[in-house]
Hints:
Elements: H1 7-17, H2 23-36, H3 42-50, H4 62-78, H5 94-112, E1 118-120, H6 123-135, H7 147-169, E2 174-176
Antiparallel strand pairs: 1-2
Helix pairs in contact: 2-4, 2-5, 2-7, 5-6, 5-7, 6-7
Amino acid sequence: MTEALSYQRMQDITAIGSPDASVAELHGAMAGLLCADIHSTYEQWLGALFAGDGMPFEQDADVPLRELFGHTQQVLATGDLSFQPLLPDDEEPLAERARALGHWCQGFLFGLGQTTGQRTWTSEAEELLKDFSEISRLEAAEESDDEADYVEIAEFVRIGVQVIRGECDSPASSRIH
């Protein structure tokens, strides 16, 4: 991701109008919505997040958030494994990165659930979604040395998103209405 779309920059932008917003959770919701329907729009994402109440962020946040949405949509549409969840840099404390990864997974599950109807998932996708739910409750001790575990889990999430995206895009994927 570009410097303009870095985690810290996006967190700073969204915190101006909504200090409690987690940019990781916002990006997770974006990715989940786009996995379910790659043709979703920025406005649909905002509507799902804020129930039609409009954008709670400062107007200055609109352009970077639109850019992030477009970038995420483009990367997920290509299916070339270049997708990266928007998470804090490796220099940030492990506890902060673990918390953000949990928020990201929580947002992803929310976004994925915003489509109409219920999808019939393969057992692999069901297992991934259960794992994402567990990760959404992830906590790391402040003085933890579980760096390798975090890296492994973050990579698992990154690849899992691509698997779920592929399943959602598959003609064999069906919906129950």
